[in-house]
Amino acid sequence: MSSPKTLSEIEDLLPALTALRHDLHEHPELGRAEFRTAALVAASLRDLGLDVASGIGGTGVVGVLKNGASGRSIALRADMDALPIQEATGLPYASATPGIFHGCGHDGHTTMLVGAARHLARTRRFDGTVVFVFQPAEEGLAGARAMIEDGLFERFPVGEVYALHNWPDLAEGEIETRPGPIMAAADRFDITITGRGGHAAQPQGTPDAILAASELIGQLNTIVSRRIAPTDAAVLSVTRIEGGKAHNVLPASVEVTGTVRCFDAAVQDRIEAALRKVAAGVALGSETRIEVAYDRYYPATINDAGAAAHALAAAENVATRAAMAPHPSFASEDFAFMLKQRPGAYIWLGQRRSASEAPLHHPAYDFNDGVMARGIALHTALAESRLSAQAGV
């Protein structure tokens, strides 16, 4: 079991790991194109003597570290991809690739898991197998599902799987998780309203796609408040409306896009059904044609209760505060796919340094290097505690 001494043991690793994190930040890669990142990770793991497999689910990398004779096993996962956002930090190691940067801290996640591999490879205070999973394409491209479909858990069978994410909502060094839902399911809807198009001075002969879109948006925003029970948390947001090019032309079509977030598949069913009914009603009343594309691209992230308890127990020795998260987040996470395959937990690692801390996915965001040691120590504590003789994984 990890103890406070783990943090001091890690100190000698931090200069090289910080340099690695800054290098990854300066050279970000989008999902499914993490070629340089994957190569650096694979080389680092091979240098430690781990068995390494590359190209899993596209650019995914898996390293395997065995110690002792136990058949117990655990997976630790980090995501590697960056975001299509122009960085605005002004850092000396800012992204060298215009329009792409690590605005969610995956450079930090990758580095912490590399650090955990380095520390566990030299201390070996566990009995069993640690599988280090470096996942591509988390940002909306379902890299976790791609790795699973490519045989991740058949090739590398494990009893449990854990992941952590830096969390600017929590103070630096705090750690939280919870049993059950911790991140929301993510759905996307794309709606096309088609009228006829024509002169704005003669609207009587042209079914008005813009007017239909405005009515549709108003009704969509009543679905959660009027068709979903107040006890069932959900969010529906319209995020884009596009149509028309000229001030005197009624456009032939308008597109409306948005997202739905909730924690229960039955609630997803009700929202999607209601959305389709609303669209059909507006189409009938406006004499337009409305087509709905509805994509449930990430399920809810549901922590196993036992695994969440194990994570908090491991965090007690490495966090400034380890606590049960009071509520889940409406953000989404494709680690959900892994938790549908194996028991495990998703964990938040606080990184907030001040009240003005930039949030995730903000152009001014940067991963806080000051929490790197605690992240490595948490990975270490999970491996050592779950692969101890008393764990029974």
Q: Which sequence of SSEs, written as H and E, runs from N to C?
A: HHHEEEHEHHEEEEEHHEEEHEEHEHEH
- Overall number of strands: 16
What is the SS-derived class?
alpha/beta
Integer count of domains? 2
Can you tell me the CATH topology of the largest domain?
Answer: Aminopeptidase
Q: What is the CATH-assigned architecture of the largest domain? A: 3-Layer(aba) Sandwich
**Helical percent range?**
25-40%
| Distance from first to last alpha carbon | 14 Å
Q: How many separate helices?
A: 12
Summarize model confidence as the mean pLDDT.
Answer: 96
Radius of gyration, CA atoms, in whole angstroms: 24 Å
How would a textbook summarize the main sheet? 8 strands, mixed
Beta-strand percentage range? 25-35%
Shape: elongated
Contiguous runs where pLDDT drops below 50 for at least 5 residues: none
CATH class category label of the largest domain: Alpha Beta
Structure description:
Strands 1-2-4-3-5-16-6-15 form an 8-stranded mixed β-sheet, with helices on both faces. Strands 10-12-8-13 form a 4-stranded antiparallel β-sheet. The protein has a two-stranded antiparallel sheet with strand order 7-14. By secondary structure, it is of the alpha/beta class. The model has no long low-confidence stretch (mean pLDDT 96). It has 2 domains: 5-182 and 300-386, Zn peptidases (Aminopeptidase, 3-Layer(aba) Sandwich); 185-298, Alpha-Beta Plaits (2-Layer Sandwich), CATH 3.30.70. It contains 12 helices and 16 strands.
